[in-house]
Amino acid sequence: MLQDNYRTVPLSTYFSVLLGDVMTQVGLGLIAFGYIFVVAFTGKADFDSFALSSNSPTTQAILTKIAATNSKVNKQRIYAYSYTFSLQGQRLNGTSYETNREDLKEGSNVTIQYVADSPHISCIVGMRNAEFPAWVALVVIIFPIIGLILAYLGFKKGFLAVRLLKYGEFTRGKLLNSVPTASKVNGRAVYDMTFEFTAKDRQTYQIIAKTHQPELLQDEETESILYLSENPKKAMTLDEMPTCPRFINSREIETSPTSKTLLYLLSTMIILLEVLVTWLLW
Q: What is the model's pTM?
């Protein structure tokens, strides 16, 4: 039973191991950095135009205001062209966006398209409904998506490491081979290092440790390994775990420095703050 081997993991060590993997930190950093651009650009991206097509009905409108925005595309200033039009006795307003059009003045007649069953969605023909094209939002969202993938892979490793610290059985494993991969971290190649160990069931198992610091797993003839007794394939070398946690004895785990833990928590706190600010402003 897992509960029979339960160890208490100090809170600072828990978060250091959970968040300390390189992929987790890079992933969270990309999310925190990319989130700013996602909020800034997606709110100004033209998604309404997807509802319009060449078959959309058209009518005439009058330009009421032309104003420069703070946005640029390809170093050209974007202008907001506000207009008004009447449809079935109803007066409607809209705003379209484009670079400077010297042929248009306030009071000019323009042709607009609108959605037949939702005429509040309209656009001056040849312009767009927001400051940026929709593809801009698709570009900026790539970074948070990559960040989510990296953070997921890092969290997956971190959760397993925490679980092993709580319930894992100790054993020693021998390095069978070490193969460099095409991946790199901080300019260093990531190695696939295969270890073999014997569990309590007297069966032999192999695990692959992925690390860009192979020297940490080659400093002893055999390496400390933690595995789950009910599933020995769920195993990890102690030196492969994020932040390399250490034991005082077989039951007690060292407490990680608070300063290090806060550093690992920084990206998470920034993301939560960004989400909170966005929620309050919207």
A: 0.77
